[in-house]
Amino acid sequence: MTERMLVLVRHGQSDWNLKNLFTGWRDIDLTEQGVAEARAAGRRLKAQGISFDVAFTSVLKRAQRTLDLMLEELGQQNLKTFKDQALNERHYGDLVGLNKDEARKKWGEAQVHIWRRSYDVAPPGGESLRDTAARVLPYYIQEILPRVLRGERVLVSAHGNSLRALVMVLDRHTPETITKLNLDTGVPMIYRLNADATVAEKKELAV
């Protein structure tokens, strides 16, 4: 039976995650904890006996480095990898570089929560989750999904919101329920898909 495996991993903790800053497309590296999270994710996948045929990541170093560290733990450093801006984190516009607590003081708790968690309200100069989905999903459908359906085992290392846009479709979230979803850093989500691209099984490899 064809396995049709898709594994999604949000990058390990970045320096700006630690400092509670809006990061978006700013190219910030991992913290020591983020490196440890990425390595641990790779070890947990290896313990499951999982290896991969191909990988996808964004053009941002925190996702790429997470991928590299996972592949090192898996002994698959030379795995064929595709990097694309379509998988980048959501762009936070005018909020990029701001501390989240300072933003709440400036615009109010409710407004910042709407910008961070709502489906279709974008921060000033930035993207909503719907905008992010508008670039993530076509890339998934055109480049990633066909490989999964052919039986390739695919690893995707990306970001909280680019993956939320994808998980929204896979897990059949509504614009209302997706607001409550937060993806932890460095936790592999293992999907096995049916032949019609729906989800047959999902398992998270949490610590």
Percentage of residues in strands: 5-15%
CATH architecture descriptor name: 3-Layer(aba) Sandwich
Low-confidence stretches: none
Distinct helical segment count: 7
Number of strands: 6
Structural class: alpha/beta
Radius of gyration: 16 Å
Reading side by side through the largest sheet, how are the strands ordered?
3-2-4-1-5-6
CATH superfamily: Phosphoglycerate mutase-like
Tags for this entry?
14% strand; 207 residues; 7 helices; alpha/beta; 6-stranded mixed sheet; Rossmann fold; 6 strands
Can you give a write-up of this model?
The chain is an alpha/beta fold and 207 residues long. It has one domain: 3-Layer(aba) Sandwich (Rossmann fold). 40% of the residues lie in helices and 14% in strands. It has a 6-stranded mixed beta sheet. Helix 3 (61-74) links the parallel strand 2 (54-57) and strand 3. The chain starts with a strand and ends with a strand.
Q: Outline of this structure?
A:
The protein has 7 helices and 6 strands; from the N terminus they run βααβαβαααβαββ. With 207 residues, it is α/β, with parallel strands linked by helices.
What topology does this entry show?
Layout: E1 5-10, H1 15-18, H2 32-47, E2 54-57, H3 61-74, E3 81-83, H4 100-107, H5 109-117, H6 129-149, E4 154-158, H7 160-170, E5 189-193, E6 199-204
Parallel strand pairs: 1-4, 2-3, 2-4
Antiparallel strand pairs: 1-5, 5-6
